[in-house]
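New to this. Please check this fold:
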Amino acid sequence: MSTSAVDLSDIQLFDVPTLKDPWEAYGRLRDHAPVYLVPGMNIHVVTRYDLLREAIRDTETYSSKFDEFLGGAQQMQFAAAPEDVQQELVRINEEMIVLPPTMLTLDEPEHTKYRSLVGKLFTASRIKSQEAAVQAVIDETIASLGDATEIDFMEAFGFPVPLRIISDRLGIPEEDREFFYDAATAAASGLRLTPIGPDEMVRRAQIALDLQKMLVRVIEERRQDPRDDMITILGTSKLEEEDRLLTHGECLSILNQFLVAGHETTTSTFGWGMLLLVQNPELQDQLRGADAKLTKTFVEEALRLEAPVQGLPRLVTKDTELGGYPLKEGEMIMLRYGAANRDERQFENPDAVDLQREKAGMQMAFGSGVHHCPGAPLARQELNLGFPALLEHMDNIKLTPGHADPEAEASFILRNLPELYISFDLRN
C-alpha cells in the first residue's frame, strides 16, 4: 500500500471537533489510508476491520508490551507544570507502589498466567449466580428516581449503577465507597488524555496514592478474613508456576484495570444506548417487553456504534507490512476499534442500529483475541438487565429542552458521554 493519492491533510485526529465526532474522518481513512501515519508523530492509525483482526491475532509482530503512549502524554503534562507542582508530584510518586505489567501490557506466555487467574473472577457460573444482585442494584437505582420525569441520565443512572456493582464485586467496604467512587472516576479520567491544570494533576496523584493505600489495606484484610469477592480471590490466589501469592503491585495493577473496565465502559454504553433510544423512538416500543435476544442485539449495536474504548496501541516488533503498508521495528500502531466497528466491509449499513443484524457480537468494543476484555460478561449482564428495566419505568423518552445537545468528551482513548438530560413519562 503506497501513501494515498487522496489529500487527507485536513484530517486532524487530535483536534477537539474530530475527537468528539470522528466518524467522517474514520470513513475517509478506511477508504484511502487504512494504515495512516499521523503527521509529526510515530503513530500509525489502523481503521479497517480486517486489518485490526490481522494485527490482533499476530501478537508476536504487534506487541502489547507498550505503555509509552500514555506515559508520554503524562510526561508532557508534567513538564508543562510549575516547578512546585512538579516537586509535589515527584514526592507523591515516590510513595507509590510501582505497578508491574500484568495483562493489558503483556504478551503470551506472561499474559496467560495473569489472565487465567483473572478468569476465575468472570466464569459463566459466577456471573449467572450474581444476576439477582445486579438486578437489585438496577431496580433500587430506578426506584430512587421516585416520580421524577426529568433527569440527567448519566448522573442518576449511568454513573452510579456500574460503580456500585463493581464496588460490590471487588468487595470495597461500605465506609470506603464514597472515596472509591471518586478515585475510580479519577483513574478513568486519566486515560482520556484531556489536558488538566496543575491543581488537578496534584489532586489526581494524591487520590491515586490514597487508593493504593486503601486497596492494600483491604487486600491484607481479605487474606486474614476471606470473603466472596474479587479482592479476596486476587489476594489469596497463587501463581502456580511460581508458588507464591501475588505481590501488592501485581494486585494493584490488575485492580487498576478493573477500575476502568469495570465501570467506565458500562457507564459509557448506558449513556450512548439511551441516546440511541432517544434518537430512534421506534426502538423504545420495539424493545419494551421484547425477548432477551432483541435486547442483546441492541446492546451489541450500542457497543459497536460508540465503542467505549476507541483504540489501544501496539508496538511493532520487526519490519513488516500490514495491508501492504510497510512498518518498521519500533514504530507504533493505534488500533481504532471505533473505526473498525463502523466498517461497511464488515457491517452493512454500519451507522444505523439494526435489531436484526446477524453476528452483531462481532463488534470490537471489548477487543478481540487474547486481550479480549475479561470483564465483558459482567458489562453485558448489566446492560442486558438495565435497558429492559429502564424501558419498563420510562415511556416516550426525549431530550429535555433547554440543554446543549449531548456530545462526547474530547478523548483519544475512551469515549464517554458526560451528561444526558432526558424527559419521559412514567409507566409505573
Summary: The CA atoms of residues 257 and 344 lie 31 Å apart. The longest helix spans residues 248-279. The chain is about 50% helix and 10% strand. The first strand starts at residue 35 and ends at 37.
